[in-house]
Amino acid sequence: MTAIDQGLQDIVQWLDMLTNNAKRNARDRYSDWAYHHIGEILKNYGRVFHPESALPVENPGPSRRCFHNSFEAAFAFDHLTYVEGFASAFFPAEHAWCTDASGALYETTWNTPGTAYLGIPFKWDVVNQVNEANQFVGGGFVLGSPLMIEWMQRGFDESLLVDIGEPLSAAMNA
Question: Residue 148 contacts by C-beta under 8 Å, 6 or more apart in sequence?
């Protein structure tokens, strides 16, 4: 098993655990919701980005500021798309990075790319809307915004993502 295969498997197992816990805790209270955790959304709509395709970013931002660093990079460079999800280095962690039209990964925070990346590449309008609203309910940026609660209740709007990266189902079956 390659490092990306193991890293991706670790992310999926982590998301499954978080999702199962959320479903157990919310099964009665939110029984009519489309999703109970962002892990379900990521597994359905997330894209895999390969660390071996990582390209350098000029002046990567400070550690522990991946959402901000990636937002700033996507704002500064028109060819970059903001991606948010989970990455695996030593363990799966909420993370943000950028990609370009070819699907190349731009790690805006970590000095060394992680072993696997699973995230949703968002259209700039969505990222900017979340930034301007400046309201957060969770740990992420877009996935920690009130939009996430709306998606969990009603379902994810696929028109908000950029068609870049490899669908999870294809990566897991490769």
Answer: 38, 41, 137, 138, 140, 142
Structural contact between residues 6 and 91, judged by C-beta atoms closer than 8 angstroms = no
Report pTM. 0.91
User: Would you call 49 helix, strand, or coil by DSSP?
Assistant: strand
In contact, 99 and 105? CB cutoff 8 Å: yes
Which run of H or of E encompasses 133? helix 124-133
Q: At residue 109, what is the residue type?
A: T
- How remote is the C-alpha of 14 from its chain's centroid? 14
Q: What are 29-88's pLDDT values in tens digits?
A: 788 889 988 899 999 999 999 988 787 776 677 778 899 899 999 999 999 999 999 999
